[in-house]
Specification:
Helices cover 41% and strands 20% of the residues. The protein is of the alpha/beta class. Strand 1, helix 1 and strand 2 form a beta-alpha-beta unit. The mean pLDDT is 95.
Length: 308
């Protein structure tokens, strides 16, 4: 029997996430939204694409949480997107009012599921799901670092005119302007990035990575990115459902790692059938440590706004 993944929120991120999971035949998919009938139509469209897409995945669109029952993994994308002039943190009050009740409904029907949070501000919303669900920390985690890393890798590949597949990179910290792309751990076919680019060019790419989401919001006007976030979620889902144990940068609950306690924060983790199976601690320079502390302070300031 195939595993079951439910995606809550049938906006752009939710629908593309569901479609990516279906195409990869990772698991059967339930796509839920509160907008009447819309997820049902989207689910049917994806199902009917199966013969030409060459996948046999069962896809169900629904307005009822009952259809998500006994999910192995639930992806929460529900929430309002950013618009020009807004930071991710500006969404904290609005999306807390959405993520909290969504989590309550999800755990009612799938008490043994794992929760993958995508809603912004990411670090605060995954903390919300963790507190509301009462689940163990390994079962609740957030997608952010993979998205930030894929942007970093894309910008490097564009600059060097090489395949994106040759780039390996690491981005730590909160999902926002204080994220920490670690150039020292970034390589091109195993060769340090500093071999190819001078510091000032690397610094410029790092800054563009930090502003990557804002740049897209500026052009879209009425929403935020969805293709890259959705494929980042699909990579996490694949690693968990297929127990691939990939090491990926994700928002995980820290209890002293990196000198941070009681906070969700972007770090490299091993993702497998048990969710976050290991947090990988790496050596950092004093400059990196200072940047991590700055990012921690920014994340904690937003989390401290939340009232449970």
């Amino acid at each position: 029997m195939r595993k079951k993944v439910s995606v809550i929120g049938a906006g752009h991120v939710g629908e593309i996430t569901a479609f990516a999971i279906a195409q990869l035949q990772i698991a059967d998919v339930v796509l839920l939204d509160i907008i009447p009938d819309v997820p049902i139509g989207k689910g049917l469209d994806m199902l009917e694409a199966g013969p030409v897409g060459k996948y046999d995945t069962r896809i169900t669109g629904t307005n009822s949480y009952a259809d998500t029952a006994n999910s192995d993994l639930v992806v929460i994308t529900a929430g309002k997107p950013r618009t020009p002039g807004m930071s991710r943190d500006d969404l904290v009050h609005e999306n807390f009012k959405i993520v909290k009740p969504v989590t309550e409904e999800v755990i009612k029907y799938s008490p043994n599921a794992m929760l993958l949070i995508v809603s912004n501000p990411l670090d605060a919303m995954v903390y919300t799901a963790y507190k509301v669900s009462g689940f163990a920390k390994n079962r609740v985690f957030g997608m952010a670092g993979i998205l930030d890393t894929t942007r970093f890798r894309a910008f490097i590949a564009m600059e060097l005119n090489v395949s994106v597949e040759s780039i390996q990179a690491l981005v730590l910290g909160g999902h926002g302007d204080t994220m920490v792309p670690v150039a020292r751990y970034t390589t091109v076919a195993g060769i340090p990035l500093s071999h190819f680019l001078p510091k000032e060019k690397i610094d410029a790419i790092v800054e563009r990575t930090r502003q990557g989401g804002t740049e897209i919001v500026k052009y879209l006007k009425t929403g935020s990115a969805y293709f890259a976030p959705s494929l980042a979620v699909a990579e996490m889902v694949e690693s968990i459902i297929l127990d691939k144990k990939k090491i990926l940068p994700c928002a995980a609950y820290l209890e002293g790692e990196y000198g941070i306690k009681g906070l969700y924060f972007g770090v490299p983790v091993k993702l497998g059938a048990n969710g976050v199976e290991e947090i990988i601690e790496i050596d950092l320079t004093e400059e990196d440590k200072a940047a991590i502390k700055k990012s921690e302070a920014a994340v904690r300031a937003v989390v401290n706004i939340l009232k449970f």
